[in-house]
Protein: Adenosylhomocysteinase
Organism: Desulfonema magnum
Amino acid sequence: MDFDIKDIQLAEEGKLRIEWANQSMPVLNRIRKRFESEKPLNGVRLGACLHVTTETASLMQTLKAGGASVFLCASNPLSTQDDVAASLVKHDEIPVFAIKGEDNKTYYKHINSLLDNKPQYTMDDGADLVSTLHSERSELINEVKGGTEETTTGIIRLRSMAAEGVLKYPIIAVNDAQTKHFFDNRYGTGQSTIDGIIRATNRLLAGTHFVVCGYGWCGRGLAMRARGMGANVIVTEVDPVAALEAVMDGFGVMPIEDAAKIGDFFCTVTGNINVIRKEHFNVMKDGAIISNSGHFNVELDLDGLKELTKSTRYVRPFVEENVLEDGRRINVLGEGRLINLAAAEGHPSSVMDMSFANQALSIEYMVKSSVSLEKNVYPVPEKIDMQIAKEKLAAMGVTIDDLTPEQKEYLASWTMGT
């Protein structure tokens, strides 16, 4: 079996952590049990480009239980948990191509190593796998029947491809499922981003000015958690509706050029490019702390910061101090990459339980339906979304009401008024 990981000797440690994560993933565990008996993915070759974490390992085990031949590479150079990669190789015999801290050349070599296995279905987080497949490895496109995409950034890229008519197979936008973005993005990103920032810096948030760039679901969660830690939260936005919501939620809202002058902590969660730029770094306080929890580090204009910088050094793991010409220090966390995965462990497993349940059921749906689908980006079927919500509630011991026959009739009727 071909693979490329840091150290196979880390496998036992990884196995224990995967088991720990599995304890908080009841929905995915139920799906795995059904997959083991029904084998809905039997004979399928599935290439996954995801963050190599304990929760992802649980998903890989579930897909393999369903009969798939699974191949895994990292979707971010800093997000790999090396012990998890080792455990998947040794204990689950799943080929993994991922090493924490790999350079860009190795990152894309690993994506190509995965593609060498000629996947029939892809599972992506950020669309690097899909874009590489369409550009550098287009000779394999005819092998691919469908795929899924995990995150906002990837969906933006895929919808652009579809609009230009270059997307060559159907893909389900897992991120758009209510049980994914309402919970994973808000509660998962909110908690894990704060976790990553605190692990990297060991700084107190209470009483500081914490700038959240972007008030989508990730931004909402991050702003809520930062306020819960006692920070004075400032939101920057380009969408007037989102900005209005932030105001109504009690946060300060202002342009980034104003926030840059007063912020102590900054975190981008927009999915866009150069959100914090050279002119913003140029007016920041001495000691400002900069991080990103959007998918790619392009949210920060790191080249612009480099132009202002006379020297750099790592003062702590994941904290790069940039000393400007006038002596001010700007600290960038985790190379500007996803701080919740670079310096911490990503989302809690109970949240990823729903996200990866969506992935597993969406791939099952795609295997059954890809022949009838156009080359486009599709939402997760509502039936799957509702099924996952019901099973999560059941696992939490929560019951809800059912509509009475009278209520169903009322909702379906236009003749019954006041």
User: Anything to note?
Assistant: The radius of gyration is 22 Å. The first strand starts at residue 45 and ends at 50. The CA atoms of residues 211 and 259 lie 7 Å apart. The chain has a mean pLDDT of 96.
